[in-house]
Amino acid sequence: VQAGSQSWTAWFFGSLDAGNAITVDKPPASLWVMGLSARLFGFSSWSMLAPQALAGVASVGVLYAAVKRWSGPVAGLVAGAALALTPAAALMFRFNNPDALLTLLLVVAAYCLLRALDAGATAWRWVVLCGAALGFAFLAKMLQGFLVVPGFALTYLIAAPTSFATRVRHTLLAGVSMIVSAGWFVAVVELWPEAARPYIGGSTNNSLLDLVLGYNGLSRITGSQGGHRRGQRHRVVRVDDAAHVAEHQAGDQEPGSPQQQGGPGVIGAWRASVSYTHLRAHETDSYLVCRLLLE
After folding, report:
1. DSSP readout, 77-138?
2. pLDDT tens-place string over residues 220-257
């Protein structure tokens, strides 16, 4: 978050440092929100956590509105209170993890789905909004945002009060909306020259697709982390070598030059990322289980 408050490039890619050496191992949507708050109000624990708390309040409000439409205000209040008083939610909405934004976007998607079920001729607008919310949920925590997609699609295909052909068309339209709202960032990162952007943290080959399908994707479902740890060791070597190159390049510059002045900060960021990935690469299986439960 602090890096994003200092550099727009770091804000966009979700960099771990303002020098844009390496990104965090999550998509940047939650960092976008916290980074904008830090730019508006200055970087502090308050400006970083206020968006999380607001996401919690909004999640409760949207859940109340969704349940109220189908089951009345009393049921809506019960549902909202249940979310607000859930211990995991109380922890989640006061911590700077992507889960707060993920929860809000999934609740918004559910609300849009319920609106589509009784919207009649305008149902297609609500399914597009539902798909867009799910797409941005992907940008909050990748494939975890898509876990509800099969249930949402099946619900609309069964319960929508229209012809089956129309239901299929609307479901496909929602899918296109979801892919576009999630895929634009993946496309930008993959097409951006690697030399002009930070290394994709958590990947084995500096690719966001590798992060999506690997460490933050199928590995979360299968529990397999071996490839990630091998990739982390490989990345430690790459980043450490890059730090040595930058150190020599900075030493070759004239004293007081921008390159030399910027060298220590960039090298320090590289060293910090090396330490971080080195620790992640040597986690034991028990540590991995605990961290996956918390994340």
Report:
1. HHHHHHHHH-HHHHHHTTSSSTHHHHHHHHHHHHHHHHHHHT-GGGHHHHHHHHHHHHHHHH
2. 666 665 444 434 433 443 444 444 434 444 444 445 54
For tokens 């876990």, the residue is 147
In this structure, what token pair is assigned to residue 47? 């400006």
Q: How far is CA 214 from CA 113, 204, 208, 217, in A?
A: 30, 9, 10, 5
The DSSP output letter for 20 is: -
- How far apart (Å, rounded) are the C-alpha atoms in residues 201 and 183? 19
Give me the residues of the chain with pLDDT under 70, please. Answer: 220-295
Rounded Cα distance between 140 and 28, Å, is 7
pLDDT, tens digit (0-9, with 9 covering 90-100), for 134-162? 999 999 988 889 999 999 999 999 999 99
In the structure encoding, which two tokens stand for residue 77, read together?
């209040």
d(CA 102, CA 110): 12
Residue count of the chain, please give it.
295
The answer to whether 116 touches 130, Cβ cutoff 8 Å, is yes
